[in-house]
Amino acid sequence: MKLDNKSLLLYAITDRTWLNGKTLPEAVEEAILGGVTFIQLREKNLSYGEFLKIAGEVKAVTDKYNVPFVINDNVDIAAAIDADGAHIGQSDEGIKTAREKLGSDKIIGLSAGTVEEAVKAEQSGADYIGVGAIFSTSTKLDADTVSLETLREICRAVNIPVVAIGGISKDNVLELTGTCIAGISVVSAIFAQDDIKDAASELLELTKRIAE
Asked: Do 72 and 43 touch, CB atoms closer than 8 A?
């Protein structure tokens, strides 16, 4: 699956911390039914076998709704389950290595916090860039914040789509108006909510007002 920029509008990253009795596939399905357009599976503390199992279960849901599905950091898992791609950080496997493992038809996203990192990511062959943290976030306490001006500069400096990430919620998403982002990436703003479907639906309508 090659990247359709419109699919980045509402990009949800999973976190099983807040599932409140739901299974992760159930939560992902609710999010998609609410309007989520892209799913990233992020797991930091699972064995390879456990990660592989849950990735396959989530992929069954995203395949059902034809929603792009990528794996965070773990390119080997992405390759093993034939995910749509992977999202890697500045310190993870390089884009070249990821591309060799996944193939030319897969989606590869890269995290960036500066114009220089974003330009390098594009030159290296990234399909999209995740920029953040835009606002302070409880999900990644060690993440440095990126100013809205830097976000705008990054969007102007590259020709691939940019997704804003970090602390974004229904209460602050409209502050991103005019930044030229393709969409927003959220975790708790969807998966920590009592009604995941409604939370996704509300965020989607707000994001449509700001995304290019």
From this structure: yes
